[in-house]
Amino acid sequence: MTTTTAAPVRPAPVRATRRRRTEIDSRRQRWGWLFVGPFAIVFATFLIAPLGYAFWMSLRLKTLATGERFVGLENYVKAFSDEIFLRGLLRVAGFAAVMVPVQILVALVAALVLDTLTTRLSKFSRLMIFVPYAVPAVIGALMWGFLYSPRFGPAADLFGLVGLDAPNFLAPGTVFGSLVNIVTWQWAGYYMIVIYAALRSVDPSIYEAARIDGATGRQIALRIKVPMISSSMVMVVVFSLIGTLQFFTEPQVLRSIAQGAIPVDYTPNMYAYSLAFSYSQFNYASTIAFALGVVVFIGSYLFLYLTRKQSGLK
Amino acid sequence: MATTLADRAAQTGRAPRALRPDREVGGGRRIGSHVFLLLLVVYFVLPLWWLLVASTKSNSGLFVGDGGPLWFNSEFSLLDNLRGLGTHNGGIYWRWLGNSFLYAFAGGIGATVLSILAGYGFAKYRFRGRTFAFALLLGSVMVPLTALVIPTFVLLSKFDLVNTVWAVILPSLLSPLGVYLMRVYTQDAVPDEMLDAARVDGAGELRVFFQVALPLLRPAIVTVLLLTVVGTWNNFFLPLAMLQDPDLLPVTVGLNGWQALSNAGAGGEQVWNLITTGAFVSILPLIVAFLALQRYWQGGLSHGSVK
Description:
Chain B: One of its GO terms (biological process) is transmembrane transport. Chain B: Belongs to the binding-protein-dependent transport system permease family. Chain B: Pfam families: BPD_transp_1. The complex is a heterodimer. Chain A is 72% helix and 3% strand. The two termini of chain A are 44 Å apart. The relative contact order of chain A is 0.11. In chain A, β1 and β2 (67-70) form a beta hairpin. Chain A has 16 helices and 2 strands. Chain B contains 17 helices and no strands. The longest helix of chain B is centred in the middle third of the chain and has 33 residues, at 92-124. The interface between A and B is large, with 110 and 106 residues.
C-alpha cells in the first residue's frame, strides 16, 4: 500500500518527462473524437437509430381493436412464413445468382482487355463503358423501358434485319432477363473501372517474368492478373451482391410499362414499400425491411468470410 | 530486360518509362481486342444515342417518324420540347432539376466534409474506442441503406420533417464508404512525420489538419465527392418515400411520375417527348462532370479496394 502511493511521488527524472509526453499525447489523441464526432452523430442518428427503431417497431403490432401492443417475434414468424416475402427473397436470390456473375464477368473481361492496350480507342472505350454509371438508375430504367417497348423501340427494326420477330421483352417470362440487362448496363462500367485501376497498380515486371517463362497472354491474365487483384474482385462482388439483394428502383420504374409482368411485391423492398405506403402497415413493413437487412448482412458477411483468403481480410 | 525495353522504345518511339511489357502483343490479337471493345462501346452507348435522338422528336414523331428509332426525323423538335418542359405543369421540370442539384450538392458536400474529418480522425489519432468505432463502421458498409428508409421515414415524421428538403438531405449525409475510403487514403498519403514536424513548429491540431493534411488529400476528396454526389443524385427510394409535394421532388422521381401517368393512358397526360427530353437534359450535368474530372476519379475509385 505504502509503496504504491509512494511510487508516483519520486519517479526517475527520465520517466517523468516520458510521462508528461504521454500525457500530452493522450490529450492530443482526444482530438480524434472531435474529428470523428460530426460523422458519429450522423451515424447514430441515421443508421443506428433507424435500425434500432425498425427492430423495436417490428416487435409491435398496431390493430384497430387493441391499438399498438408488444407482440414479440410474432411479426418475424409471420414474415418468414409469408409466401410473398419468401417469393421475393427467392427472386432477388435468383437475380443475385445471375446478375452478379454477368456484371462481374463483363467488367473483368473488359478490364483485362483494356489493360493490354494503350491506344486512343481503348481510352475512349474505357470512358464510354463507364458513362452509364453517371446515369441515374431511374433514367436508365426509363430509357430501357422505351427501348424494350414495341411502340418506340428499335427492337423490331434490329431483329427485322436478320428476319426475326422481336420478342416481347416485357412479358412475365422475359422481364427477368430484361432487368438483368438494365442493371448490367448500368453497373458493369463502374466495376470495370475499379478492376482496371487495380490491374494498373500491379507491378508489370511480374508479367515480363512470366512471359520469359513462356506464359501466353491468356495464361498471364487468368493465372497472374486475376489472383493479383483478388481483393478488389471480392470487394466488387460484395457491392454488387448488396445492391442486388435490395433491388428496388429498376423493377419499380419498369412496372408501369410492363403491366402485369411485375407485381407490386416483386422484390422484398418493393413489398415493404407498398406495405408501408399503400397499406400503412408500418410495423410489418419494418419487419420486412429489418429481416431483409439481416439477410443481406449475413449474406455479405458469409461471402467475405468464405473469401477471406482471397481478400486478405482476416 | 534493358535491351527489350530499349528495342520496344525504338519500335514505338516512346520513352521506356511509358511502356508496360504486357502491352506489346501480336497484331492479330489487338484487332480482336479492338473489335471486342467496339462491340462493348456500341452496347453501352446505344441507349444514350437513342435518348439523344428521341429528345429531338415530337410526341407523335416518336411513334411514326421517318427516321426510325435510331436516327433523327426530318422534323427537328428539340427546341419545342425544351420549351414544352418550361410550360408543362407550369414549368415544374426545371424546379425538379434545381431540387436534384440542391439535394445532390447539399448531401454530397456535407457527406464529403464529414468523411474527410472522420477519415482523418480514424487514420491519425489513437483515441479511446477507435477500434470498436471503426469495426462498427466497417460492418455498416454492409447494411443495405434501403432497409433504413422506412424506419427513417417514421422517425422523421415524428419531428414533422417528412415532406421537407431536410428529409432527403439529412439522411444523405451518411456515407460509411466515404469515411472508409478517406481513412485508407489518409493513412497512405499523409506521413506522420510531416504532422509531427508541423506540431514541433508549434502548429495546433486544426492548423496541422487544414494546412498540412488537407492539401495532400485532394484526389481522394474529389473521388468521395463524386461518389456521394452521384449517390444522392441517383437516389430514388428515399425521395420517393419522403416527399409528396410535387414542388420538392428531384428530377428522377418527377420523371417517373410523368412516365406512370403517360402509361396510364389519359390523352392529355401523354408527354413522351417531354420525358425523353427531360431525361436527356438531366443526365448531361453528371456526364460532363465525370468527363471533366476523370483525372481524379480514375485512380481514386480503386483506392479502398487495393488495400
